[in-house]
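Hi again,

Forgot to attach this to my earlier email, sorry! This is the prediction with pyridoxal-5'-phosphate bound. I've pasted everything inline since the attachment limit keeps bouncing my files.
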Amino acid sequence: MSDKPSYGFTTTILHGDRQKSIEHGSLHKPIHTSVAFGYKDARDLAAVFQGKQPGYRYGRQGNPTVSALEDKITKMEDGYATICFSTGMAAIGAICQSLLRAGDHVVSSAFLFGNTNSLWQTMGGLGVNVAFVDATDVSNVEAAITPATRIVFVETIANPRTQVADLKRIGELCRARGILYVVDNTMTSPYLFRPKTVGAGLVVNALTKAIAGHGNVLGGALTDTGLYDWNAYPHIVENYKKFPVIQWGMAQIRAKALRDFGGTLGPEAAHHVAIGAETMALRQQRECENAQAVAELLAADERVAAVHYPGLPGHPQHHIAKELFRSYGALLSFELREDIDCFDFLNRMKLAIPASNLGDTRTLVIPVAHTIFYEMGAERRASMGIAESLIRVSIGLEDTEDLLEDFRQALAG
Ligand SMILES: *Cc1c(COP(=O)(O)O)cnc(C)c1O
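Structure tokens for the complex follow:
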């Protein structure tokens, strides 16, 4: 359960663990590797299994190191509770496993992380129909809703084309219709934006990206903001209705997805994420400054055909980003002029590394249509606004001038 944060973002994260007693006064929550948890009184073990007493039973369903991280994410999102998973995709998959059934309908932004797009295709084969809409305008979401719509799913800033969803108005729509609003906050991170402020019921964070932040660990999280009334959700299993209503969603997700499908975050990984999280706000500040500078450099260069970054005044959703986000994020993408080969350009870069990840400390670049969005084919790419020459940039912590010089020399070459 979250305490209302009364300190600043970084202070809260740094000192969050100590609000509960930490073993031996350790400043870091220790890495508990034990899979099982023993009880002196067998009745206590039974009480834990029956949900009558808090406690750990088996590592797949929960672990003290992971719980400490879950509390930290809950504080970051100002939420009610959080469950961590082995990856960001496991977190999104958990929604499918625990909350969706054949015959259900989902309205999803068409501008999506490639693997989430692929997951929705898979769900189609399992009888869950997904309508893909341009979520930069709430009216498209509204038009797609059917009586079977259970979930509306959007990303804050879409990867890789940086479209910003009509976050606030979609929240109002979902609230009015009693539909669960799920926001993937990975590209903004809870430092730049809290989806709870626009009415999200569930928030997804790929911990792999900004929160862990060093490209050395995978993880994902689902946070229940406490705003959604689970009474309105038709598929809550009777078993979990013995808890207060606010706990129904998390109880069902923890049992039906984490326990039954087993996408558990390991304690060592949780430790890496927790250490990374301590500096997230500082990294985000630097990365956003760098991203703005690189975006402006590219936008001013005649060899660049288009730049997509919400921090540029010409970005179609700049006004939404400006109103809702603390800054504009570390993700940008751009298209080179047709006569410049994107592979040659990438090979000229000295600092930026061709690699597939986001939110690393180092700047990473990738030719999207030829790699992460290759499998979906040209037609779907075109419908998502992905040009064949599109280069995605995940801005890192390099000194701004060094980064600008790297782009300058690669363009000049
Ligand atoms: C990376 C990413 C994910 C998936 O996270 P993994 O940890 O790689 O599974 C989900 N959503 C978005 C927006 C992402 O960028």
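Residues 281-412 form a domain with the Aspartate Aminotransferase, domain 1 fold (CATH 3.90.1150.10). The pocket of pyridoxal-5'-phosphate is lined by residues 87-89, 113, 116, 155, 159, 184, 186-187, 206, 208-209, 218, 220, 358 (CB under 6 Å).

That should be everything now.

G.
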